[in-house]
Amino acid sequence: MEPAFVLHDHRKPRPHFDLRLEEDGVLRSWAVPRGLPTDPARNRLAVAVPDHALDHLTYTDADKSIADIGWWQEEDRNAKRIVFTLHGRDGSHRYALIHTGGVNWLLHRTKEQPR
Predict the structure, then answer these.
(1) Using alpha carbons only, what angle is made at residue 28 by residues 25 and 57, rounded to the nearest 5 degrees?
(2) 93 vs 70: CA distance, rounded Å
(3) Which of 26, 84, 91, 108 has CB atoms 3.0–4.6 Å from 96's, for a disulfide?
(4) Residue 53, exposed/middle/buried by CB under 10 A (0-12, 13-18, 19+)?
């Protein structure tokens, strides 16, 4: 079974999105204030937040809804970068999370996209 992902649309304390990738029995999580990038020329800040339990995959409440859900595929990884493809409701898109230090990452949509 492929590892799952979920993109939550979170409206509190300020509107933002939470990207969660299933890995090692938890959901590794990043807060993404402006959502996933749609243009390779525009990176987005992604702030690492504590891991969440797998039951958070389908969690919703009055302030949190699911913007996208599906499975993800790791393409490449090293100590500073994870390249992955999200296979969601509206197709497949490849991204890179680039660690810039501390809790801060950049979320980049790659030029090369799956077909």
Answers:
(1) 70
(2) 12
(3) 108
(4) exposed
Structure tokens at 65: 């809804």
Distance CA 54, CA 58 (A): 9
Summarised one tens digit per residue, pLDDT across range 11-68 is: 988 999 999 999 999 999 999 999 999 999 999 999 999 999 999 999 999 999 999 9
Tokens found for residue 7: 């993109």
pTM: 0.95
Joined tokens for residue 26: 């938890």
